[in-house]
């Protein structure tokens, strides 16, 4: 009888030990699964096209932001102040969005950022010192180049193997707002500025050069 009781006790304890081991294993596996679920996947590196687009557009919107900042510094308290401020606020939003995309896609900003920062402000303030119409001529010239640039990018994205829909929507929206800025400049007498044709051509050339440089470095 003692032998039978001993065997029964051993069997019971064996089952208990088995259950404990199974429970610990199950708990460990479940915890590992939860840890894996909490891990956020890294954002994939941007494609060569997306990398180039984000870098150059970030530089462009930085430049536009500083141009309007320069115009506001000179004309902010005048009749054109509200109009310039409205366009400037939109450019700030554009710049902020591309700063987010720079971080999200881990894109290297152009090394020319400090130069574009200063050059944009000087261009905006310099043309504003020539008068309201000259400032609007600057706006028309810059926005003409930006709208064309964005249209080229939209075609590139749509023709790519895997179009980035988010980037496509962002650029489309910004392109439309830049076109509004262009039209505002025309409505505010840009074409009446002294040496309008020569001034706008020089500004356009400068913008196109800045775009070409910012694409690569």
TrEMBL record:
Biological process (GO), any one: ubiquinone biosynthetic process
Natural source organism: Drosophila busckii
- Which Pfam families does the UniProt record give? COQ7
PANTHER family the UniProt entry points to: 5-DEMETHOXYUBIQUINONE HYDROXYLASE, MITOCHONDRIAL, COENZYME Q10 BIOSYNTHESIS PROTEIN 7
Question: Where is the region Disordered?
Answer: 26-45
* Domain of life, per lineage: Eukaryota
One GO CC term of this entry? Answer: mitochondrial inner membrane
Residue ranges that the Swiss-Prot or TrEMBL entry lists as coiled coil: none
Which UniProt keyword terms apply here? Iron, Membrane, Metal-binding, Monooxygenase, Oxidoreductase, Ubiquinone biosynthesis
* Ribonucleoprotein in keyword set: no
Q: In which pathway does it act?
A: Cofactor biosynthesis; ubiquinone biosynthesis
GO MF assignments: 3-demethoxyubiquinol 3-hydroxylase activity; metal ion binding
Please identify the protein, giving its name as recorded: COQ7
